[in-house]
Design a protein that fits this description.
- With 262 residues, the protein is an alpha+beta fold.
- The strands form three sheets. Strands 4-5-6-9-8-7 form a six-stranded antiparallel sheet.
Length: 262
Amino acid sequence: MPPTDRIRDHAGQGATTVAAHRTRRRLRADRARQLADLLRRQLLDDAFPDGTLPHEDTLAADYDTTRNTVRQALDLLRAEGLVARQPGIGTVVVARKYAHGLDRLMGLAETLHEHGRVTNEVRTTVPVPAPAPVAERLRVPPGADVLYIERLRRLNGVPLSLDLTYLPLDIGTVLLGADLENTDVFRLLESVTGRPLGHAEITLEAVTADAHSAAVLEAPRGTAVLMLERLTHLADGRPVDLEFVRFRGDRIAMSGLLHRSL
């Protein structure tokens, strides 16, 4: 074989080896991501009550994978702030995620009552001219005053969400004298109006935390947070509560029960 052909053949074998290595690495990353999803679900379900995950060898055997894949999956969970490696102990749970239901209209304290006490740090309560999108959704005249409330909500003292709320002024003014620090706005709305809440329109998306939100939530700057936009109506259809709620994504998981209807 001429020297040039041998060089080409060797180069081709090298390219094949590199491509195979990249494929193996990609497949291991895929498997690690799949395993991280399964372990994250177990963390949400409190599957490790003593706070310690099984040994890496045990996880590898349980999920029929390699120890390297297990380590890569645990690295993903560590990057999310859910677990940490402790010498002499292993991988331990360092943060809890709480399930927030989306199939019922409930306040945060009602939703998480089984997990502890929700308290509210009321940062702002002030009448403001309604921005056009707020006026449209609350069905108030453009520029009319609405009550703006900003609250930092904690579960057992740990920052969980930053809630920005707009309320029609006739209802919001009554709320100014209410216990906003210890009571869900939903309960207060039903109390001051004498009418039950009916339904809510929601949008859920991931957004990048701005510097203010990150500082208040004690989250890393630039981290992704879950943003829930919710417009709540009374049972008679009147919109009374427009909220923009930023949840720490490492502490909340949205859940619900959906039925297929064609």
